[in-house]
Specification:
- This protein is an alpha+beta fold and 121 residues long.
- It has 2 domains: 1-33; 34-109, N-utilization substance G protein NusG, insert domain (mini-chromosome maintenance (MCM) complex, domain 2, Sandwich).
- It is 26% helix and 31% strand.
- It is built from 2 helices and 7 strands, in the order αβββββαββ.
- It has helices at residues 7-33, 83-86; strands at 36-41, 44-50, 56-58, 64-68, 72-77, 96-99, 104-109.
- The strands form 2 sheets. Strands 2-1-7-6 form a 4-stranded antiparallel β-sheet. Strands 3-4-5 form a 3-stranded antiparallel β-sheet.
- Strand 3 and strand 4 form a beta hairpin.
- The chain binds zinc ion.
């Protein structure tokens, strides 16, 4: 009679679960440190959006729509080459997307500067 799961299969499955768990934790952790989406227009900070579960849409300049939820992204833009939209979602602090024609920059910042939540080490 054939066993359904051999010890080797069990080891492989455990390994996959361990990796999945680690990846999930890293995403959870980096997601937790992403606190604000900043929208810069022509070098000026135009919007600072707290990131959370609810999704909101913003129009920092005519023709550009930015979405912010637990991550942020350029949702649509009427620029000729929408590289900004193709950049996709920004999840982690330091992630940046730029719309050059509209001179809009979108970036994710972490916890408040100097905050104890900042990642150290
Ligand atoms: Zn663009």
């Amino acid at each position: 009679m054939r066993k359904f799961i051999s010890w080797r299969d069990a080891a492989v499955i455990t390994g996959i679960l361990a990796v999945a768990f680690l990846v999930f934790n890293v995403q959870f952790f980096t997601g937790k440190t992403a606190e604000y989406a900043e929208v810069w227009v022509e070098g000026q900070l135009a919007l600072s959006i707290p990131l959370g579960q609810s999704i909101a849409l913003y129009t920092p300049v005519p023709g550009v729509t930015v979405a912010a939820g637990h991550s942020t992204r350029f949702l649509s833009s009427d620029c000729r080459d929408p590289f900004c939209v193709r950049t996709g979602a920004l999840l982690s602090p330091g992630n940046v997307a730029v719309c050059l024609p509209h001179r809009v920059m979108l970036r994710v910042t972490g916890a408040q500067p100097g905050g104890l939540d900042a990642v150290t080490g």
